[in-house]
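Technical note accompanying the year-one report. For the benefit of new consortium partners, we illustrate the data format agreed upon in the data management plan: each record pairs a sequence with a structure-token string. No post-processing was applied to the example shown here.
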Amino acid sequence: MSIIDKSPALIFTDLDGSLLDHDSYSFAPAALLLNQLEMEYIPVIPTTSKTFAEVERLRIKLNNHHPFIIENGAAIAIPINYFPSMPKGCYEKSGFWIVANSQPRHHWNTLLEENSQDFKGEFETFSSIYAAKGAKGIQEITGLSLDQAELSNQRDFSEPIHWVGSEPRKQAFIKKLTAAGGTLLQGGRFLALGGQVDKGSALLQLTKLYQQFNSFAEFHTLAIGDSGNDVSMLEAATSAIIIRSKTHAAPNLNRDKNLTKSTAFGPEGWVESVSFWLTDSLEIGSKNYG
């Protein structure tokens, strides 16, 4: 029997600043709990602004065999044969079924070029940084290793933007690009320009696939995040955890039920809060958390 036949719950987790330390990108404090969740048939689903290439590599280190959501919900990657049959509308890539929810990266770079003339010098993109300095330029602004920086630039559906102007100008920039048809989401470090997608919509989309191929009538979903681009999934899930950040204030949510806020940062806060969620639920989904 596969894990999807036994799972009572699904955990959708942000990576940077949540499961991964903001500075070192380490998940070491969470390693034991990740193994426990695997043994309890609770899939941990990375839900991130990162690329397919980045998460594919990270899954090996995490010993994670489940689907993942990339580029803020722009696509879902499902291991081939994870479900009994390929969901409709998928295509195959490197051993995965890909559900694409957005137009490709070059579409958003064209839109950006056509609508950002008034903001020259106030931002740089991964594409422009890579063109000028290669992966080393991305390494300098992210703290990633050179190899990881190369993977970070292998984007399929969105363009990260490093804003260097003022906050009021950033809001004007967001307004201009939104009016032109783009969606800008603020992550822990960068704005991401892409389609009308978000982590919450992808969470619901993937949960429906689990339900379609599973004997459970519905799943308890837990969303974990620390920043603005996590709000949609934190609102959409059955329960939510906000991880305390070293660099920015906690995102504001409309919900107050089934909500936990960590006291520790990053992966330590992840372990603290998920452990509470597990031990506080004699029957998953039957209690409020926080």
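Partners are asked to follow this layout when depositing records. The chain has two domains: 3-101+198-279, 105-194.
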